[in-house]
Amino acid sequence: MKEEHKHEHKAKKYGMVIDLDQCTGCGACMVACMAENNVPFRKDETDKFLSITWMRVYQLTNGKSFPNTEICYLPRPCMHCEGEHGHSPCVSVCPATATDYSHETGIVSQIYTRCFGCRYCMAACPYHARYFNWWDPVWPEGMEAYLSPNVSPRMRGVVEKCSFCFHRYQIAMEKAHYEERHELKEDEYQTACTQACPAGAITFGDLNNPDHAVCQMKKSKTAFRLLERLGTHPKVYYLSSREWVRRAGDNYLRDEDGKVMDKRKLRN
Amino acid sequence: MDAALIQKGVRRCSFGQFILFLAVVGAVLLWGVFAMLLCWIKGLNQTNMNDYYGFALWIWADLAVIAIGGGAFFTGFLRYIIGKDELKNIINYAVLIGFICYSSALLILAIDIGQPLRGWFIFWHANVHSMLTEVAFCLTCYFGVLTIEYIPLILGNRQLDRVPFFHNLSHNMHEIMAVFAATGAFLSFFHQGSLGGVAGVLFGRPFAFREGVFIWPWTFFLFTWSAAACGPCFTIMITKITEKVTRKRLVKDNVIELLAKISGWMLITYFAAKTIDTWYWAAVTAPSKGFWMMDFYSGNSLYGLWILFAEIILCAFIPGLILINKEGRKNKTALMIAVILAVIGVSLNRWVMVLQVMAAPVMSFDTWAMYFPSWQEIATTILPVAYGIILIAISHRYLPIFPQEKELNPIE
Description:
The structure holds 2 protein chains of 2 kinds.
Chain A: H1 2-8, E1 14-19, H2 28-36, E2 56-61, E3 71-76, H3 89-93, E4 99-101, E5 108-110, H4 120-124, E6 130-132, E7 159-161, H5 166-178, H6 192-196, E8 202-206, H7 213-217, E9 223-224, E10 236-239, H8 243-248
Parallel strand pairs in A: 1-10
Antiparallel strand pairs in A: 1-8, 2-3, 4-5, 6-7, 9-10
Chain B: H1 15-42, H2 57-68, H3 71-82, H4 88-112, H5 121-124, H6 131-155, H7 164-175, H8 177-200, E1 212-213, E2 216-217, H9 218-246, H10 253-288, H11 305-324, H12 326-330, H13 332-359, H14 375-398, H15 405-408
Antiparallel strand pairs in B: 1-2
């Protein structure tokens, strides 16, 4: 009881653990994310530098030739970086406070109606998790009826990104409040990508709450985060039993054998 | 036709010739305005920017014009604060060039943002942690200072000067110009610096990131220093071009040489500071993030070590060396080569700190991203150049910009 009381007052830190050994690269997380968050798309999406993908699955390779080639799929949502005391790379640079770090949830928000589209946050994000609306969203005829009423579509000229399905958090909190509860159960707030993953590779929860699976999973010996050396303190953890995958998560001066790294091998 | 508006004792081309010149440059200006309207009406999809290149040609142009427009604040600082009296003969032109550069920068920013009607949010919802906020405030304030410095020049027009109120206003403004020059120097130190800080604070981008003092990364000081060094070079360059176009001498050699000498020493000290900064970044900062310096200068078709050589040796050390030598300053060709190199150098530095930062991959499995601007981006970048030429042409024709013109070009 005492422990539970103590946890109630500890700020939440929502995060994700993605098991790359389980990810098949099917892209269901990407589809679910787009549908859930009214992410706009165009008829021609061949130029991926213009596609808005809050969740994007990267294909990684170990750079070796056949028969030693190995592939790994790495889903990349927004990392919801904590930085130093909430000064994540994007939050600290936004001149109009249009993106904010919540110390209550650890979620980095984007205020679309305040963003004036300077794109400094995009320049600051090393994960390319931020996207600009180069066009106004145009939905195929009749599709408006299928848009989520809980998420506002974004207009041309503003930046958007993964919100850890924050609207789901708000709905869950509303319900909890109505039931006179202050805490959410683990399964009450889950992101769309987590629920859509057929392999169960994505686990979501409060990284500060020992009752949540992510809190234990992040401590795994095979856990790593992307670009930890930069000091961004991301809240998305990855698990992989393969060392080359774990090493691909960051930049190293030398490879496993102590030789100078040739990063071009990884950049296929 | 417009003889009554032209200063007494100076010679100008015919009105028809002048209008023809304005029409040609005006056509280019209209092309830029058309592209600007396309960007405002249809949106930034008119550009070749993308989600890897959120910052591109315009931000480079912005940083570059502000750097080369630095001649206004630094010449003002030397003239009014340090007391280099000879510079009174070039300060008007430095102010005009600065005014053009800064108004251009503000225009480019207005085109560059995705929601131009919300531009004022940067002041209303200001984030004090953002370098861009500091840029916006100081830039706007300094543009106000430049406008105040430009007004007495406008009031110096032959016809306006006949109105007693304007005459007295202009005189009184001249009297207190030192206050504005000091304010301008103070504001410029911060906005030139914070433009350097824009890149330097990006701790998620190891190519740009720099350590520093308190909240300011080293790029903060390097940007201010390079603007103070190369801004006057741009003033000299434009003065020389104006002399070529108008086919007469407008500023005495001793004035140009004094400014060139100061720029030369600024360039040499900048060269030293930039070399130390690059060495420290390559040896300590980048490796601490898991990068060799060569990771940023290889594996792509454009960005190689030639950039470092061009930026530091060819366009900083060599022009600096020319300008600190009396023979170099006195030799017209050498002087022109030096100031052009310095202007290219500072522009290249701004390109590197914007475009190369965007191009270089950070995640180990990411790739170099290349970019070429669309015609709309190019047209809107040329637009300020056309605007600048027109404003210089009009100012030169009708305003007393060059105090030594009559003495150097007596009418028999």
